[in-house]
Amino acid sequence: MTDFEIEEHEYDVLVIGAGGAGLRAAIESMALGCKTAVVCKSLFGKAHTVMAEGGMAAAMGNVYSEDNWKVHFRDTMRGGKMLNNWRMAQIHAEEAPDRVLELEEYGALFDRTEDGLILQRDFGGHKYARLAHVGDSTGLEMIRTEQQKAASLGVKVFAECTINRLILDKETNSISGAIGYWREKGNLILFKAKAIILATGGLGKMYAITSNSWEGTGDGHAMAMMAGAEMVDMEFVQFHPTGMVWPPSVKGILVTEGVRGDGGTLRNSTEERFMFNYIPEMFAAETASSEEEADAWYDDHSLGRRTPDLLPRDEVARAINSEVKAGRGSPHGGVFLDIASRRSAEYIQKRLPSMYHQFMQLAGVDITSEPMEVGPTCHYAMGGIKVNAETEASSVDGLFAAGEVAGGLHGANRLGGNSLSDLVVFGRRAGKGAAEYAKQKDNFSAIDKEFIDTTITNMMKPFENEGGDNPYAIHKELQDSMQSLAGIIRTEDELIQMLNKIDELREKMKTVTVDGNRWFNPGWHLALDLEFMLTNAECLVRAAIERKESRGGHTRDDYPQTSPELSKVNFILKQVDGKTQVESRPLEEMPEELKQLFEDD
Q1: How many H-runs (helices) and E-runs (strands) does the chain carry?
Q2: Nearest to residue 102, comparing CAs of 65, 149, 69?
């Protein structure tokens, strides 16, 4: 192998990613007797999971006894515009309540009803109040709880360590390990593993305005593709309707849907509650048509239909975009989110403490006395690695995925609150699937030494290049182009322009240049991450070109309607000889007993 010194480790199961899905997978794998490690790109505990503030969706029926898994399943499928993997949606709805109670057993401290049950709040697209929550810091509580549980089981954590490539056994074409580097000093590290679980989260940093932190560069998506895994639904990216828009330094930071769930309303510059003008036919029967009806619903759900402010996120984001384009936006290019005129200061500070402090400290806005300025921000990737619903196994032997990096559950659009329950439901299943796979293997698979040499050579190339572009300049060019050409509203001409831009940026990447050495060098780290972002950008754009309709998190200005034919297919992407190929594949048939849940639609 290479002359570079490489630190080596062996584990039955290697989990890449230390958010809610990765930690739950590691807990399950460890509990089943497998030697398990977690690799964490950032500081341990700083996962994007903490951005999920409002709660985790589970049909526990603590607030409305009418709620059950079938209602949750129906809401999830309709929110995803029926492109979801129905079996994943069923498993999620059935198992989410047990995973919430399991977190409570681990030590999570949920808000309570007067009867002492776990309190649940309203959220967009959910028929009933369904989100178990801890104020507006639910994701943080999940991470804290899972960290403590993982530590108690002895899970090994490699923090501030980044994986750059998955390694395949050339003879069996199955997973044999992974290679990466320590972020602090750039020292190389090699893991031999019988099974690998990808739980790397999202890919939002290829957009200019995003709620994602710097870690969200789509590493897992891209590494899986490079290893031969199939991807699904990559055209669907969720722009959360309410991100901060002012000041510029915090543009894109998330404002939880819990603000609207607790009574907040969206208004334009004329103070009109404009969401009543954007109620789609699919949701008209269960959505209030007047302010009086919506306000009555907030007080008592039996008195009216739910407010349009809590329509699914794709609908709300498009509505805000339309208001701004029509000249009815707020001074800084968003709209107003008002809870101050609708709830007491005491109520707001009790129910939304993080939001209160976030706006006071970052924007100088007191949300108990004035409205917030909000607008769409790239938040979540519905698309990801195509996995088996039961085991979370990918199309590559020994490779599993859970959480945002896995596709299928959410279809064309994710409902708020379904992410946190997704993490623990399918994190557990991925951990179980990977552990059972690893136990069937007596020995570690062969490590491809030639592949490792090639990988290390490519990793070091930015230091050897001279006179090339700065990685930060290339990243900004990618972000600005994706925001303008492949953002909330898309057209074929602009998507083709974006493909050409990706090719142009790939040429620049061949000579990308970084200064210094491997110690404390974020420029080098970004140069390596850019390859992942460009891979994911190409996948998204190619799938978006093929889906010639508007559906969920994919809106085509040149094809504004939904297509009956395209409602029956997912687009699958795969790399073949280094080239990205796209094919349409029919949806899996839903059983008759589940189809009956949609007879009223």
Answers
A1: 17, 21
A2: 149
Ramachandran sector of residue 11 (left: φ over 0; alpha: ψ -120 to 50; beta: rest) = beta
Q: Report yes or no: 59 and 97 within 8 Å, Cβ to Cβ.
A: yes
- Dig out the tokens for 5 from the structure: 């010194």
CB-hemisphere CA count at 13 Å for 398?
Answer: 27
- For residue 237, what are its two tokens? 């990216």
Beta sheet of 335-338, edge-to-edge order: 237-244, 372-381, 335-338, 265-267
The phi and psi torsions of 597 (rounded to 5 degrees) equal -70, -15
Contact 228, 580 (CB under 8 A): no
Count Cβ atoms below 10 Å from residue 593 Cβ, excluding itself. Answer: 8
Q: List Cα–Cα distances, 451 to 188, 268, 397, 445, 458, in angstroms.
A: 14, 56, 18, 14, 11
Give the model's confidence band at 435: pLDDT under 50 very low, under 70 low, under 90 confident, else very high.
Answer: very high
- The amino acid at residue 149 is K
List C-alpha distances in Å: 553 to 105, 233, 250, 412, 550.
36, 10, 23, 6, 8
Q: What are phi and psi of 563, to 5 degrees?
A: -105, 125
Q: Residue-wise over 464-485: b if at least 16 C-beta within 10 A, else e?
A: eeeebbbbeebbeebbebbbeb
Q: How many C-beta atoms surround the C-beta of residue 10 within 10 A? A: 14
Alpha-carbon span 372 to 546, nearest angstrom: 38
Can you tell me the mean pLDDT for 275-282? 94
What is the rounded average pLDDT for all residues in the chain? Answer: 95
pLDDT at 363: 87
Cα-to-chain-centroid distance, residue 99: 19
Cβ-based neighbour number of residue 515 at 10 Å = 10
- Residue 266 near residue 273, CB atoms below 8 Å: yes
- pLDDT tens per residue, range 288-330: 999 999 999 988 887 889 999 999 999 999 999 999 989 999 9
Which residue numbers are catalytic?
Answer: 240, 260
Whole-angstrom distance between the N-terminal and C-terminal Cα of the chain? Answer: 61
Element (H, E) at 456: helix 449-464
Pairwise CA distance, residues 245 & 365, whole Å? 12
CA distance 456 to 467: 21
What are the tokens at 140? 């943080």
The helix/strand/coil state of 41 is: coil
Alpha carbons 583 and 556: distance in angstroms, whole number: 19
Long-range contacts of 460-467 (CB under 8 A, 24+ apart): 462/512, 462/513, 462/514, 462/524, 462/527, 462/528, 463/514, 463/517, 463/518, 463/524, 465/511, 465/512, 465/513, 466/513, 467/511, 467/513
